[in-house]
């Protein structure tokens, strides 16, 4: 048996890990899109590093595009197997992939106008809306906590990862030559005591673990402080300076967390009476999906639901759907809060809002999660004084900030707690993925001190045999 790491290897995006059994069967864990890597991004997304038609089955940990975004391309290139995931992941992935396909087609129409000197293959989208629809036909949802057959000699089970609604850790039992090998893939791990979701679950002893390491050298601020931090920003920017406060926020997870915190502030009677806008059609759809799975919420929000039938809404909140409505926000004066995708500010409507408001010192742009260093959000956080957006150079006069407590990824204490149910001496190898190299090295040293002996940090396309 072999495993190859074709994505999220010494980077935090493009998750793809391929297990090849002795009988030739191939099981793919995630098929994510690379995002925010500048000029490299398109080329990375066009080369899987394996033959799509040779993959027999796929297991998807969760819906985020850096884990699911190349599934339609996989299908376009010949994959015809089953795609297993949780029910909520299927529903979320459906809206995310349709949105991604529309972006692919729109980008190609734009490039067609500038096609002079461009290679013909670069004028083809990664996939189309039709490819995304065909991909969704292959999905087969499975609930948490029950073993199911994947392919000959392979069983799988999902446990709750607590990252976004429906996110799962994947556990495999692989039978070869009368020997059972147990492999666990963490997917993306959430935080313990999250304000909305259940905590990551304990899981059976594994022989091999593929583990994310995004915040392997960091501790987050306390989740309980998030509403107060939001309130501080609102008071400083909107009340005192009469400016616009822009929150780039991922459509799935982060937007709902912000809305829930604002709902709680409004319930306490402390939320200023100013306009709040969610300007992202995708965020609106994602919020509707989240509301359909209340059983995945933690006890705290279950109690809130007894008195509040919609914990993601409050007076003064407006959902923006049309492009014209979105553009109109640029001409509105006075204080307001705009919550818009994408979370790294590299695409979507939020990029337009930043372009229109970044030169005004009354305004602020506050990141609410991880930003890849090459992304617009990452560059702003790194303190650039000028930034190019849509081909125009802008002076960065707006205040730039970040609320680290809102990360959907666990920090090194959360990840260590997830591993606490394992006997380190029984782990033959632990592979660190989904992290920046320096962060992974720091986390590796931490794991070695905890008794995990063989910790590897694979490069892209690295393949290794499992004993």
Automatic annotation (TrEMBL):
Keywords: Hydrolase
Ranges for domain Metallo-beta-lactamase: 13-233
Gene3D superfamilies: 3.40.50.10890, Ribonuclease Z/Hydroxyacylglutathione hydrolase-like (3.60.15.10)
Organism superkingdom: Bacteria
Signal peptide as annotated in the record: none
Segments forming domain Beta-Casp: 255-380
Pfam entry (one): RMMBL
Protein known as: MBL fold metallo-hydrolase
């Amino acid at each position: 048996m072999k495993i190859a790491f074709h994505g999220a290897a010494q980077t935090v995006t493009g998750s793809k890990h391929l297990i090849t059994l002795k009988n030739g069967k191939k099981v793919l864990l995630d098929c994510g899109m690379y995002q925010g890597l500048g000029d490299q991004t398109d080329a990375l997304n066009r080369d899987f590093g394996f033959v799509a038609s040779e993959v027999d089955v796929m297991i998807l940990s969760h819906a985020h595009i850096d884990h699911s975004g190349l599934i339609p391309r996989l299908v376009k290139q010949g994959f015809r197997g089953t795609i297993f995931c949780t029910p909520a992941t299927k529903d979320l992935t459906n809206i995310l992939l349709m949105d991604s396909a529309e972006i692919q087609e729109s980008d190609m129409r734009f490039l067609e106008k500038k096609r002079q000197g461009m290679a013909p293959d670069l004028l083809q989208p990664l996939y189309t809306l039709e490819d995304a629809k065909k991909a969704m036909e292959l999905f087969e949802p499975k609930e948490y906590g029950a073993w199911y057959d994947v392919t000959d000699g392979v069983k799988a089970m999902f446990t709750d990862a607590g990252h976004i609604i429906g996110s799962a850790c994947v556990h495999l039992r692989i039978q070869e030559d009368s020997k059972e090998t147990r492999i666990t893939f963490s997917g993306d791990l959430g935080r313990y005591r999250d304000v909305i979701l259940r905590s990551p679950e304990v899981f059976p002893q594994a022989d091999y673990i593929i583990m994310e390491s995004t915040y392997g050298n960091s501790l987050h601020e306390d989740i309980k402080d998030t509403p107060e931090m939001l309130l501080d920003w609102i008071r400083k920017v909107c009340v005192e300076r009469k400016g616009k406060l822009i929150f780039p926020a991922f459509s799935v997870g982060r937007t709902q967390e912000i809305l829930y915190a604002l709902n709680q502030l409004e319930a306490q009677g402390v939320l200023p009476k100013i306009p709040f806008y969610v300007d992202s059609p995708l965020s609106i759809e994602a919020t509707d999906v989240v509301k359909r799975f209340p059983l995945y919420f933690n006890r705290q929000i279950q109690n809130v639901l007894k008195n509040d039938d919609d914990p993601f809404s409050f007076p003064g909140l407006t959902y923006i759907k049309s492009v014209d409505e979105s553009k109109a926000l640029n001409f509105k004066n006075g204080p307001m809060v705009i919550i818009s995708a994408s979370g790294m500010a590299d695409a979507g409507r939020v990029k337009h809002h930043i372009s229109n408001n970044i030169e005004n010192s009354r305004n602020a742009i506050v990141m609410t999660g991880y930003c890849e260093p090459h992304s617009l959000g990452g560059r702003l956080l790194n303190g650039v004084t000028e930034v190019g957006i849509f081909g125009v150079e802008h002076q960065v006069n707006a205040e730039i900030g970040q609320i680290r407590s809102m990360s959907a990824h666990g920090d090194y204490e959360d990840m260590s707690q997830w591993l606490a149910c394992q006997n380190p001496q029984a782990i033959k190898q632990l592979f660190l993925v989904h992290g920046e190299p320096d962060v992974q090295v720091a986390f590796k040293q931490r794991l070695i001190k905890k008794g995990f002996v063989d910790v590897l940090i694979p490069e892209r396309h690295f393949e290794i045999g499992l004993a």
